[in-house]
Amino acid sequence: MDSPAPLYVGFGMLTPVEILVVDQLPPHNTGAITTDVTEFIFDDAAIVACLLRQWDVPTCMIGSMLGDDERGHTLARKLQEWGVQGTVRFTKDFKTPLEVDVSDKTGARTYFWQRSAQVLDTLKSADLSPIQGAKILYVDWYDGDRILRAMDQAVELNIPVFLNFEHGHADAELLKSYGSRTVICQAVTDAAQLGREAPLEVARKLLHAGVRTALITMAGEGCLAVQGDEMVRVYAPAVTAVDGCGAGATFSAGFIYGYLMGWKLAETVRFATAAASLKVTRAGLQMFSIPEIQALAVTLRAERSVFTDAPMTPSFVSDQEAPSGVTGKPGADLDKDMIR
């Protein structure tokens, strides 16, 4: 039986990852006992593909080449087991890279990765044909200008591009280049990601660059989303963090799921925020079910406002509209620095 055509196509680097969970990072030249160890597939485009598969969304990965070694072939088998479509390419020119992430109880993660130009440049020769017929293309700014070819192909085919931009919006040239090609853009403002701009200003900047939907994630502060003249603020719930690795990608997956389902903006942002919040409560990337995420999403504090380009503090009202479920195919200081 043929697999259904992928609704989501991710374009980006492929690498296996080892996620170590500790209570706290040890001092230099000492050690710590791990409380959990899990393995998964990175980078973010692949994470989103695997998470969406857990919600029965057909997905495909257009990835970088892997080394023709045991590590590379193991990753390829795992993608197949997850049901992620796409051709995995191998080479003897380099070994399969590896990422090691260490998560601690603060919700932070410290990562060690191998991202050589030699590996990333193999994206330049990747077959882009899976993009045709997809409903959304996901790219990550970490992969540099190698993503432009895939973005341009999607634009030509009128397929929306979701860009994970993190703090890349601080670079005016990158913003100009990527913004005009992007429909949905996820960015951050937290200090750990080198950003110190007010969330609302980041959203304005993204929209001015051509982005149609701006998603500004603020870790424990929740999320601000702006689309057209609609602005939605969703607050994250208080949770006990176990493993923050992959929380941003989980938010992306949650938003993409709602987008593919045709949900309204507020409902989609609630779901994405709930998914990311639940993810950090346990180690690894075995995702919570749709009903579990929806059960939390309906409890989240959410507010709406009308977005204007004028430099003024928005007036938010409580969003009383509860999410509709899974059937069918007053305001924060958003004009101030959110760093605490």
Task: Specify the overall morphology.
Answer: globular
Enumerate the strands of the largest sheet in spatial order, edge to edge or round the barrel: 4-1-9-10-11-12-13-14-15-16
How many beta strands in the DSSP annotation? Answer: 16
Q: What is the H/E string? A: EEEHEEHEEEHEHEHEHEEEHHHEE
CA-CA gap between termini: 53 Å
CATH structural class: Alpha Beta
By DSSP (H or I, 4+ residues per run), the number of helices equals: 9
Q: Biggest sheet: strands, sense, closure?
A: 10 strands, mixed
Describe this structure in words.
The chain has about 350 residues and is an alpha/beta fold. It has one domain (about 10-320): UDP-N-acetylmuramoyl-L-alanine:D-glutamate ligase. It has 9 helices and 16 strands. Strand 7 (about 100-105) and strand 8 form a beta hairpin. Helix 1 (about 45-55) crosses helix 7 (about 245-260), helix 7 packs antiparallel against helix 8 and helix 8 (about 265-280) crosses helix 9 (about 290-295). The radius of gyration is 19 Å and the shape is globular. It starts with 7 loop residues before the first strand and ends in a 22-residue tail after the last strand. About 50% of the residues are buried.
